[in-house]
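Ligand-bound model needed. coenzyme A.
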Amino acid sequence: MRRRAASGFQVKERMTVTTKVDPHPRGLKLRARALDPEKDGYLLVAAKFGDAPWDLEVEEHLRLKARDFERRHVCFTTIFLHPDRDELIGFYSLNSHTLELTDKFRQEFEMSKRQAPGLNLEVEVCYVVAFGVKVDWKDKGYAKQMYAHLVAALVNGEWRPPFVYLKVWRDNSDGAWFWDHMEFQNFDEETDTLSTDHEKPKPQRVRLLMAARIRD
Ligand SMILES: CC(C)(COP(=O)(O)OP(=O)(O)OC[C@H]1O[C@@H](n2cnc3c(N)ncnc32)[C@H](O)[C@@H]1OP(=O)(O)O)[C@@H](O)C(=O)NCCC(=O)NCCS
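Prediction:
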């Protein structure tokens, strides 16, 4: 026994210990700030979200449209950066939207028509125009962190819409599952084509309309 223990000790002493640093670790507290359309272009160049058409749509939004939309106040983008270096990890773009209170919507959210007949035909919502986590940083809890930031901003800010609303392609199972996991309800759907689909003619795809109530 003593010999085995002694030789084991020697082997350990001779070993070179190499600890691999994960370049994309979990658990970072990301820095969040508004996109600066004049200065942040360099942060967006390397933003890759994946190869599926819906990933490319999100990438196209961020790289080609978000800064122009920010300047024109079409929508507002919050970027999430690595705590120690200027690397973008994720983002969301939001705007204010008025949603028709359809029967399907009322049913899903148990809103009675009788409460105010003839009134309340529409509701102001926070519309998530685009939302994404860079491909190397997926599955590490960062989308959840970003969504918690979004809700906190809406609950504590001056603008307090009761619902968050978005559209997600049904074929984008990661996206649809993520929003389902964040307790979004699928109250309707629509059919449309996707600009980043390269097949000709572009296939018709189903897009799920989802919303979450964040306050009464
Ligand atoms: C969808 C997307 C935002 C998810 O980002 P992510 O950083 O990988 O998600 P997270 O790691 O924060 O996951 C959060 C939770 O959702 C769950 N989740 C994520 N993807 C899931 C999936 N495909 N199926 C089931 N649950 C899933 C996770 O299990 C996790 O829950 P837990 O913490 O309770 O385990 C990301 O894949 C993405 O950016 N995709 C490309 C763009 C896109 O599709 N955007 C949304 C379109 S509206």
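Residues 49-50, 54-55, 58, 131-133, 138-144, 166, 168, 172-175, 177-178, 181 surround coenzyme A (CB under 6 Å).
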